[in-house]
Structures are given as C-alpha cells and as structure tokens.
Design goal:
Low-confidence stretches: none
Number of helices: 2
Radius of gyration: 17 Å
Distance between the termini: 51 Å
Shape: extended
Order of helices and strands: HH
Largest sheet: none
Helix content: 55-70%
Mean pLDDT: 83
Number of strands: 0
Strand content: under 5%
Length: 81
Amino acid sequence: MIKLPTTKIQNSSDKIDIHLDRLYNLKTDFGNVDEQVINNLLESIDSWKGCISELEIEIKGYRGLDYELKNDETNDELILY
C-alpha cells in the first residue's frame, strides 16, 4: 500500500492528538510523580513548542496562508508567575 503525503500528515496529526489527550488526562497525577519526570516533561513541552512554531511558519509560508486561530470568545485571563 502506498501512503500519500495527505494520509501521512493526517495520521501523524491524529497520533499527536491521541498522545496529548493522554497527557492532558494525566494532569491530576503530576503531583504524584518524581520531580525529574515533571522536569523532563517540561523540557519536552518546550521542544514541542519550538517544533510547532517551525511547522506553523513552514506551512503558512508554503501556501501563503493567512490562517488565524478561531476566537473562542472566552474571558479567561492568563496569569504568568
């Protein structure tokens, strides 16, 4: 079976969604694991952010897309410490 780029991209995206959902659902367990595990997760998240930014720039540049995130119209406030 030949996998086309569209199929590969969709499958990869679906797998990322599955794994991020698993991590999100484990958020209540973060306090029950070693500090080193949490530090490793934070380092991974930083790496993911960089990779996502690069992918976003590449995708927008390739197609000349003018894509913006949908505004969910919530009034949540982000507080950084």
